[in-house]
Amino acid sequence: MRLAGATVAGVLLEHAQKSNVTRIVAGKPTHARWRDLVRGSLLDALIRGSGPIEIHVIAPLDEGRPPPPSVIPREHPGAWAYGWAVLAIAVTTALGMALANYATIAEITMLYLIAITLASLAGRGPSLVAASLAVAAFDFCFVPPKYTFAVSDLRYLMTFGVMFGAGLAISALTTRLRRQERDALIRERHTAALLAFTRDIAAALTPPDAAAVTVEHLEASFPVSAAVLVPDPEEPGALTAVAGLMPLAPQELAVVRWAFEHKQAAGRGTDTLPGAHILAVPLLSGDDAVGVIAVQAKQDPRRRGGAAVPLIEAIARQAGLALGRVKFAEQAREATLRVRTEEMRNALLSAVSHDLRTPLAVITGAATTLRDDEDRLPGAARRELLNQIVDDARRLERVLANLLQLTRVESGLIPSRELIPVEELVGAALTRMEGAIGGWKVDLDVPADLVIPVDPILFEQVLINLIDNAIKHGAPPLELRARREGAAIVLDVIDHGRGIPPELASTLFDKFVRASNARGGPRDRRGPRRPGRRREHAGRRRAVPGRSPRRSPGRHAPAARRAIDPARAHRRRAGAARCPDPDGGAVSTILVVDDDLQLRRFLRTTLAGHGHTVAEAGSIAEAIDAIDRVHPAVILLDLGLPDGDGLTVLRRFPADTRPPVIVLSARGQEGDKVTALDAGAEDYLTKPFGASELLARIRVVLRRGGGTPAPDVIEVGPIKIDQPRHTVTVAGHEVHLTPIEFRLLLELARQPGRVLTHRQLLREIWGPNAVDEVHYLRVHMGALRRKIEVDPARPQWLLTEAGVGYRLREPTPDPPAS
User: Which of 34-48, 203-217, 774-788 has the lowest mean pLDDT?
Assistant: First the structure.
C-alpha cells in the first residue's frame, strides 16, 4: 500500500484512524540523535498524535548493521537554472538602481523578493543562490555606505535576515508546490495510461494478444524496451517470449526465471539482483505466476521519486489478470467443446440405439417367429413377416446412410453443388422409398423445368428422411409439390397427420429431435379405431435450399387424468377372459404401446398368430384411453413415447388397478431397468428380442395373475370391506371413508397380521415418488383409527410397528368348546 501526505507520521495516523486500527508497531530508531533534532522524530510524532491508538516500539530484529537502502537518484538543476537565478537578481538590481530616486528601500526589498520567487521556480538550489545574491546586491548597491559591504545601521542586518528567510520560505513553498504539481501530472498521465491499457487488455482473446498490448503500452508510457515471457508449453520449466523484440542475455533470463519462481520483482531498481540491466516483474493471476514482464530502461525506473515503478507494477497486475482470464476462457471453451462433444456423442448413441434397435427387434422377432412357428402361421402371416424383415432391413440401410452423411457434414466437408432437375431428385427418393410407401396415395406437382444447385446425394437423403417421417407419423395421401419463389425453389412434402406441436417449431430440425405422435390410434383386431377421437390437422414439412425450414403448427391431445372406478379396476385385476393357446398358456387382450409402426405390425402379427387379441397405442394419451376401453390383460410398453416417458402410464394407475406391464425398450442400462421395475413393471425386455422369449414372458405374467381372483368382500374381525360397493362396516355399522383411507384399509386387510412397511404402503397408494413422505401415512392412519377403533388412543386392530410400518391384527380363533 502506498500513502501520500505532508508528513509520514500524519499520513500513517490518518490512515490508521480511517481503518479503525487500534495498535501500531514501530521499530526502535537506530540513527543519530542530531537527525531527529534537524528533521524531527517519526516515533515521537506517532506517540504524540496517536490518541487512543497504542504504539508498540520493538528492537531491531536483526543484529548488526542493516544493509544500506536503495538510493533513489534525484534530479539536480542544470547550469541554466543557476544562470536564471543570477540573471533575475542582476535585472532586479539594475531596475532598483534606475528607480533609486523614486522608490524607497522597502519597495526595492520587495523587488528582490519577487526575483527570489522567480528563481525558486528552477529549484531549491537556484532559490538559495538567488536569496544569497539578493542580500549581497541589496547591501552593496542600496544600503549606505553604498558600493561597500559595510553596514552603518545595524537595523539593516534584520532586513538582510528577513530577506534571506523570506527567500528560503518562498523557495520551500514554491518547490513543494512544483513537486506536487509534477506528481499530480505524473499521476494523471499514469492513470490515463492505465485506463487505456485496461481498455485494450480487456479485448485481448489470446495470450499473445494480451502480451502484445502489455508491451505496446509499456513502451508508449516510458522510454523502455519490454518483453513478456510465459511458460513454454513444449518445454516444462522454460520461459518463452511471446511479445517484444528485446533480446535477453542468459544472465537476464536468470533474473526473469527468479522473478517467475519466487513471484517477486527482481533486477534493476529492486533489492534482489540490483546490478542487472533489466527489471523483471512477475505476472500474477491469483496465487499463480502466469508470466513475467522484462523491462530494460534507458534510465533508472526509480527516477522522479520512483513513480514509474508503481505504474509498471500496476500494468503487471492487470496483465497477469488478463492472462489468467484468457487462460481460464480457453479452458472454459475447451470444457464447453468437450461438453458439446459429449452431448453430441450421447445424442448420437441414443439415436443410434433407438433407430437401430427397433428395426433389429422387428427383424429378430419376425425371423424367430418364422423359424419357431412356421407350421402354425398361415401363409398371409408368413408373407407379412417376410415383408417386415425386408422393410426393416431397408430401414436400417437408411439409418446407416443418415449416419454416414451426418459424419460427412459434421466433419466440415463442404457439399458439392450440381444443377439437378427437381423432378429427378423426387423420382429417385420415391424409388428408394417404394417399399415403405406401400399403398399410400402419392400426389406429385413438380414442374419439369425446375433445376436447383444441390449436393444430389445429401439432398436426396433429405427428401427420403422427410418422406419417411411423413409415412411414420402422418396420414395419407402424401403430396410433393415444387414451385419457384423468386430466386429460390420451394419444395413441399405434405402429409395429413396431426402436424407439429408449436412449442417444438424452433427445434424440430435439430439433430435427433423426435416430435411427432404415432399415426395410428388405439385399435384392435375386432374393429377399426373409433372415429372422432382426435381432431386431425394437416401437417407440413418443408426443406428450402438456402432457407431455414418452415414448421407447421399442430396439436397434441393431453393425457387427461381419469377417475378410477373401483369396480372396473377390480375387473381389470381379475383379468380378461382367457382360453388355452397352443403353447399351453392363455390368450388375452394385449395392449402394445409403441410409437414405431413397424414394431407394432410385427407384434400384432406374432401375437395374433398365437390367438391373442391385440390393441395398439402410439402415445401416452392413447394408451390411457385404451386401458380404460379394452381392459387389456397385459401391456407391452415402450419407454420412449412422443408425448413423454412411458413410465407415465405406470404412474397414472395404482398397482392394484392396472394390468401387468412388460417394458420393451431400446434402453439397456441397468439404471433404466431398475427405474422401470421400481415403478411397477412386472418385466423388462431389451430390444432386439426374439418372439419366443417375448411369448414366454407373457405366459409367465398371465400365469402369475391368473390365480384365484381376490374376493369381492374381505372380513377381518369386526371389519367388513365390500370392494365392488366401496363400503366398509365395523360391527355392522357402516363408516364413511375417503378414497385414500379405503385403499389404505384395503391394503392392510388383504394381508392381515403381516407388517406392511411405510415405503410399501406409500408406493402402493401414492406412487413411487412419495415413498419418503411418511407424514402422509401418519395423517391418514390417524383419521382411519378415529373411524374404525373404539378407542383411537389404544387401537385394537390398526397396530403400529415402531419404525417399520403398520399391520391389521389378525383375529384370534375362538377356543374349542369343552
Answer: 34-48
Q: What is the CATH number of domain 365-515+522-543?
A: 3.30.565.10
Beta-ladder partners of 779: none
Rounded to whole angstroms, what are the CA distances from 77 to 82, 87, 119, 124, 529?
8, 16, 12, 9, 107
Cα angle 341, 342, 344 (rounded to 5 degrees) comes to 65
Distance CA 402, CA 303 (A): 72
Residue 457 Ramachandran class (φ > 0 left, ψ -120 to 50 alpha, else beta):
alpha
Three cell numbers, residue 91: 535585472
Contact 116, 167 (CB under 8 A): yes
- Helix-, strand-, coil-residue percentages of the chain, each rounded to 5: 50, 15, 35
| Alpha-carbon 452 to chain mean position | 42
pLDDT at 420: 83
3-state secondary structure of 128: helix
Contact 127, 120 (CB under 8 A): yes
The whole-number pLDDT of residue 353 equals 63
* Superfamily classification of domain 203-333: GAF domain (3.30.450.40)
Residue 225 main-chain phi, psi, to 5 deg: -110, 135
* Distance, CA of 193 to chain centre: 36
Q: What is the spatial distance between Cα 4 and Cα 186, in angstroms, rounded to a whole number?
A: 14
d(CA 52, CA 588): 96
**What ranges do the domains of the chain cover?**
8-58, 79-180, 203-333, 365-515+522-543, 566-704, 713-808
Residues 6+ apart with CB under 8 A from 81: 122, 123, 125, 126
CB atoms < 10 A from the CB of 476, how many?
18
Set of cell numbers at residue 311: 505504474
- CA distances (Å), 401 to each of 255, 350, 461, 791, in order? 62, 17, 8, 74
- Is the pTM value of this prediction over 0.70? no
d(CA 659, CA 636): 10
CATH number for the segment(s) 713-808: 1.10.10.10
